[in-house]
Amino acid sequence: MTSVLRDFAARFAEAGNEPVIACAGQTWSGREFWDAVHFCAGRLQERGVAPGDRVTLALRKCPEAVAWLFASLLCGAVAVPLDRRAPASRLTALLADLEPTMALFDAPTFARFEDGGGHLPDTGQLVLSETLEMPPGCEVERFAGPRLTAGDPAMILMTSGTTGDPKGIVLSHGNIATFSDWALETFGFGPGDRFLNIAPLHFDLSLLDILTGLRIGAQVVLAEEGDALFPARLCQLAEEHRISVLYTVPTILQAMVARGGLAARALPDLRWVLFAGEVYPPPALAQLIAAVPQARFANLFGPTETNVIAWTEVERAPATAGAPNIGRACAHSRIEICDAYGAPVEPGETGEICVAGPTVMQGYWNRPELTRQRYFADRDDLFRTGDFGFRDAAGDIRFVGRRDRQTKLRGHRVELGAIEARALALDGVAGAAATVCDAGQSLCLHVAAQPGEPLSQAGLRRALSLVLPQNEVPSCFIFYEDWPTTSSGKCDMARLDANHRSLLYDQGETS
Amino acid sequence: MTRDIESVVVEAIRKVAKLVDRDTALTRDTALIEEQLLDSIELLQLVMELEKAYGIEIPLEELAPENFADIGALARLVCRHLGGRAPER
């Protein structure tokens, strides 16, 4: 169980013509996929990629991108899927920090990266991978790859950081295999299942669809990147491919129910609908259950740093009141609810959700101090998730909220502090406070201007879109001459938020 | 006629898309989805703007990637719903 790759080798040694990956009308059989993986691995090795080296993937999601990902793992390298839409300056900084031996781009992404002033670190060799250029019918040499142990790093997933600098979550082969083993056992996935992959490759939800699905020889249908905008398109894919497992965020599921016509689709094989990443509003969850009553539903909980650590199967009539139930610890992990010093709190009392187990990340890439801060000073066995909760009378964990200002915007994790840090770095900005409003749907930036410095909404928006991922660029700006503060002199977030609500109301009146 | 619709589409996109401002070049071939110029909320706002401008109703099942790929595709979508009528504005 050291690496999920061992299963792949066994699975694909006798891989045949059964389809394993489908995307945009293209279908790869098990043999084609495994050939492509070895072809890519051969190219990585030719270019000197050695175990532990980083391989970055700024690639449009497609079967080739998945083949490069597996090829990196096969070579013992650390695969780092990147958000290819990130601003060039951000990608440049990421690449400089990751020092990849190989930086993979597709041609349009690389053109945009260069046009935006991006550049590669000296170490990175560039490969443009529009197609694999694999000659048809060519014999691809198979090789076993280096021997890997559970502690060897397999992937780095990037998330935004509180200082505005992204941080890389280092996951080992053991981390991924533990999660994958757990998912297989818990949900009973088999080779007959068909997974719809909606999440981008740099989002941890893909670890279930792609790694676990392919590992057992199931079929994985990749939604294209733009498809997530079109709930009807996602429903159509699910129907067309007779999807049996769907794992995504509540925002997307809600859209599939409300605007994609999910209930009207023929989905006879849909067995499991899994969701994670944010709280599913109970009334909307009831609608989902009514739309696809043939399925079972489970809520999975855990930050990217730990992957899933708790889960619960959702009852037919989900509770509509009280703190959301995130269930119990997965079999592989132990969860403790702790006070600020790492001591367990009484049952029913709210504390920080902390975890010990084999899915906890190896650490943040190149950020030992930041990694250390995720543990209590005198307890290095318990990882602090930053989420707060309590154990109810039945022993289930109830979710209360986040400790810091990391929050969810349309299902994606954003650090409000990171957005503020970027805004504060701009000329003329004296103060900046980001708030999420409209029930997690929009991001508002409150800005105090330096006296005599004219600031415009368009100018700020343009400046921020150069340094922030697109989903983190605020949609609304409110300017202040006088910053509301609390008695301690800190920015008064409650007043800012109230101000924003009244402004929204005013706009509604006039439009 | 689609030329006129295209300029209305461009105007609507400039109104709803936060990543688009006066300096952003928008042509018939600008890849709206590929370039991720619209997010899911803005996409719906755009549909509402176009429905309002032309007094049409675009059914949910036509909210599909191929109809939003670029400005030309959006103009053709609107045009189909006008049933060949000239826009009433």
TrEMBL record, chain A:
Highest taxon in the source lineage: Bacteria
Domain AMP-dependent synthetase/ligase per the UniProt entry, residue ranges: 11-365
Pfam families: AMP-binding
InterPro entries per the UniProt record, alphabetical: AMP-bd_C_sf, AMP-binding_CS, AMP-dep_synth/lig_dom, ANL_N_sf
PANTHER family: FATTY ACID SYNTHASE, NONRIBOSOMAL PEPTIDE SYNTHETASE
Protein name: Amino acid adenylation domain-containing protein
Source organism of the structure: Qipengyuania mesophila
From TrEMBL, chain B:
SUPFAM superfamilies xrefs: ACP-like
Cited InterPro entries: ACP-like_sf, PP-bd_ACP
Segments forming domain Carrier: 3-82
Residues annotated as signal peptide: none
UniProt-recorded name of the protein: Acyl carrier protein
Organism: Qipengyuania mesophila
